[in-house]
Design brief:
Keywords: Kinase, Serine/threonine-protein kinase, Transferase. The protein has seven helices and twelve strands. By secondary structure, the protein is an alpha+beta fold. It has two domains: about 80 residues, Phosphorylase Kinase, domain 1 (2-Layer Sandwich), CATH 3.30.200; about 180 residues, Aminoglycoside 3'-phosphotransferase, Chain: A, domain 2.
């Protein structure tokens, strides 16, 4: 397995870049657009914008090369005039939450069992020697839910430094609220590192019938403390509140870490 991917353009020939930019200019007013993703054809889409980063493309390549997890195939990725473009094959499937309440319990169980295997496979990826908290290329991370002055943050040499960032650099002080003091003590515990998607919501999992066919939106992925997959998954979109009842069925519950993270959010916020 390769654990030292490089950050950089992918298949960025001048002709391909020209064709992609021309296609976007021609089609963006008439083709479906979901968030930052434009559907170029029935088989190809492009994610682009100034907040998009090449790290996401490299992450998908890393996952496709080192696991059996279904991810979009990256065809091309490049930066043009400070805007990043990631061209991918479209995965034909529906959001797993679509019609969830109408699925049989057997159908739900099949999908959740597959999700559990996907999470377990990700967590088995061994981090590079000396890895702290960072992206797949040991670079900065992205998550709009993490407080700070920038949407990108890190990398951090240790979990403890990451935790210190989450609480705005605050250190233990007897004058602090007892709950904050306890949070800092918990933050200073030893946590293993695990590769993490970071946003396993029902909107980032694609299924066809009873089969998981795609895990998408890897912009928040990276090497994080082992609880991060669980606690971020528990921050469900209000429009998909049903999903909170399913998370414990595919990610091992971590109630103590979830309580710790909720204390952190209470005092230091999500945004």
């Amino acid at each position: 397995m390769s654990y030292a991917p490089n950050l950089g353009p992918i298949n960025d020939s001048a002709l391909y870049k020209h064709l992609i930019l021309f296609a976007i200019a021609t089609l963006r007013k008439i083709r479906p657009f979901e968030g930052s993703v434009l559907m170029l054809t029935d088989r190809i889409c492009v994610k682009y914008g100034k907040l998009v980063d090449l790290t996401e493309a490299v992450t998908m390549l890393f996952i496709s090369q080192n696991t059996s997890i279904p991810v979009p195939k990256v065809l091309c990725a490049f930066i043009h005039q400070r805007c990043t473009y990631i061209v991918m094959e479209r995965i034909k499937g529906n959001y797993i939450g679509t019609g969830w309440v109408y699925r049989s319990e057997e159908s739900k169980a099949k999908l959740l069992t597959q999700l559990k295997s996907i999470v377990e496979e990700m967590r088995k990826l061994p981090p590079p020697a000396g890895m702290g908290v960072g992206s797949v290329v040991d670079g900065s991370l992205y998550d709009c839910r993490v407080p700070g002055t920038s949407l990108r943050f890190g990398p951090f040499p240790s979990v403890q430094e990451f935790h210190r960032h989450l609480r705005g650099g605050m250190d233990l002080d007897s004058r602090l609220d007892p709950e904050v003091q306890e949070l800092i003590r918990q933050h200073d515990r030893s946590f293993p590192i695990a590769f993490t998607h970071g946003d396993l919501s029902s909107l980032n999992i694609l299924a066809r019938e009873d089969t998981i066919v795609g895990i998408v939106d890897w912009e928040t992925a990276g090497w994080y403390p082992s609880y991060w997959e669980y606690t971020t998954a528990c921050q469900v979109n209000p429009q998909n509140s049903f999903w909170i009842n399913e998370i414990d069925k595919f990610i091992a519950p971590m109630p103590d870490e979830l309580a710790m993270e909720r204390t952190r959010q209470k005092y230091f916020g999500d945004y």
